[in-house]
Write a structure and sequence with these properties.
Chain B: Its main location: membrane. The complex is a heterodimer of chains A (about 140) and B (about 325). Chain A is about 30% helix and about 30% strand. Chain A is of the alpha+beta class. Chain A has a four-stranded antiparallel sheet with strand order 1-2-3-4, with helices on both faces. Chain A has a three-stranded antiparallel sheet with strand order 5-6-7, covered by helices on one side. By secondary structure, chain B is an all-alpha fold. Chain B is globular, with a radius of gyration of 21 Å. Classes of the chains: A alpha+beta (about 140), B mainly alpha (about 325). Bound molecules: zinc ion (2 copies).
Chain lengths: ~140, ~325
């Protein structure tokens, strides 16, 4: 078989395999259950993260966890797993209206990690601790 | 020169085994697969073999040129020296251990090898998640000593291919533990799950390719324990299934760090362990483990721990 034909056949094979995985319903629909779950996940992002406060998105798709030193960890559902970031200088938070609800939007500063939207209580508090310089300004 | 690539012949078996594992997963552990992750891993495998085709010729030419400086000579009919084959396999496996250890401890090599580790899932498709940038990272230098000893480059390629094929089946959660004698000598699903884990206890352990004895010998062995629920992937999970970012993220990271660092701190970003920074703003695996141990000590002072069985896989006595 020529190299090009072999490449096309292999490409077809991997697409079929991934499609089969999809059709079989593999993966799982994970959610962040509650604040304790979020705190545990934050400890997986930053080993030994002494969580003080946590807010979980209404649908359980994301969460924010804060420690006593004011550091904040963002956690999001990623496929059948979770993925998180310690929010640093490049991160910004803003509050906006979405279908009549006030939601918090976090930009980690990493394009491929993506923006994360959370439907949580008192989003302003989190805006203040994520970007203290911009406290009070809402997008 | 034998024009035979064992991996080409193994690919159909890989596909069948992935399908069998998917059927197992549907019934027992659907979360062990994630279709988008599977697609990324398989695309890694395809891209890696294309990269191998493009660069393989150059590596072979270099090896053949170096072969003339060999210390021992197996003669023109080197392939008929039967004992040279198993010897070459074992020494190549030792070479793989050295390569693999460097691949985790030197950021330059890690930038390529991280491709194999960036999935948060552990299944047979993860085994095919191979690097695209191994040639660029100069990974082939770890096989040069064997050529200089006197093993023919074709023999080294051949046994190396079998080593890679061996490593395929160990990427699964479907097998708990193998018989004791096997676990003692060979790399197994249980040992290699530890290698893919980000739990502090497991970081940078079990570098073996085929024989786990190298880890036992050089102090990098860690057995899988039932009290740890394994988390797979890398310390800073990608958070995306984007293929190109998954391939190049660490190279981009190196470039950014070297660019931003003051002159005298630039080069260490190439050869220091992943996570090293000149200002201590990130953590290496050693630092993470150190802090985890401190926390563990503090916690065990507080209470007598009862160890729960959090790892449903290690708890299995026999292969499922
Ligand atoms: Zn590795
Ligand atoms: Zn592996």
């Amino acid at each position: 078989m020529g190299a090009a034909a072999q490449f096309v056949a292999s490409l077809a094979a991997i697409l079929v395999l991934a499609w089969i995985a999809h059709r079989m319903g593999l993966g799982r629909d994970v959610r962040i259950r509650d604040a304790d779950h979020a705190k545990g996940l934050a400890d997986e992002v930053i080993c030994g993260f002494a969580a003080d406060d946590a807010a979980v998105d209404d649908a359980g798709r994301a969460a924010l966890v804060r420690d006593r030193n004011g550091r904040t960890v963002l956690i999001k559902v990623h496929g059948a797993q979770f993925s998180g970031r310690l929010l640093g200088a490049g991160s910004t938070a803003s509050v906006r209206e979405d279908h009549g609800r006030t939601v918090l939007e976090i930009d980690t500063g990493e394009r491929l990690f993506g923006r994360v939207t959370l439907d949580i209580d008192r989003p302003d508090n989190w805006v203040q601790c994520i970007n203290p310089a911009k406290a009070g300004h809402h997008a | 020169m034998p024009d035979f690539s064992p991996i080409d012949f193994a690919v159909p078996f890989f596909v069948v085994l992935v399908l069998i594992e998917m059927i197992w997963a549907r019934r027992r552990r659907p979360e062990s697969y994630e279709p988008r992750d599977t697609l990324t891993s398989l695309a890694f495998g395809l891209g890696s073999s294309v990269a191998g085709l493009v660069t393989g010729g150059a590596v072979l030419a270099l090896s053949l040129w170096l072969y003339q400086f060999r210390i021992f000579d197996f003669g023109d009919e080197w392939w008929s020296v039967w004992w040279a084959w198993p010897l070459c396999f074992v020494l190549d496996d030792l070479g793989y251990y050295v390569f693999h250890r460097c691949a985790h401890r030197v950021r330059w090599f890690w930038a390529s090898h991280v491709n194999h580790h960036s999935s948060q899932h552990y299944n047979l498709s993860t085994a095919l998640r191979q690097s695209w940038t191994g040639f660029f990272a100069l990974s082939f230098i770890f096989r040069i000593p064997l050529t200089l000893v006197g093993f023919h480059p074709a023999m080294i390629l051949f046994v190396g291919a079998f080593n890679l094929i061996y490593q395929f089946w160990i990427h699964t959660e479907a097998i708990g533990r193998m018989p004791r004698w096997f676990e003692a000598v060979m790399n197994t699903p249980s040992h290699h799950r530890v290698h893919h884990a980000t739990n502090p206890l497991y970081l940078d352990r079990n570098y073996a390719g085929t024989f786990i004895v190298w880890d036992r010998l050089f102090g990098t062995f860690q057995a899988e324990t039932e009290s740890e629920r394994i988390r797979y992937g890398i310390v800073r999970q990608l958070g995306t299934f984007n293929l190109l970012w998954s391939v190049f993220h660490e190279w981009v990271g190196i470039a950014q760090d070297v660019w931003r660092a003051p002159w005298r701190h630039k080069l260490p970003y190439l050869w220091r362990p992943p996570g090293w920074t000149h200002d201590g703003s990130r953590e290496t695996s050693d630092m993470i483990r150190e802090r985890w141990l401190e926390h563990g000590r503090a916690a065990s002072d507080d209470m007598e721990k009862t160890v729960p069985n959090d790892n449903p896989i290690a708890g299995q006595e026999k292969p499922a």
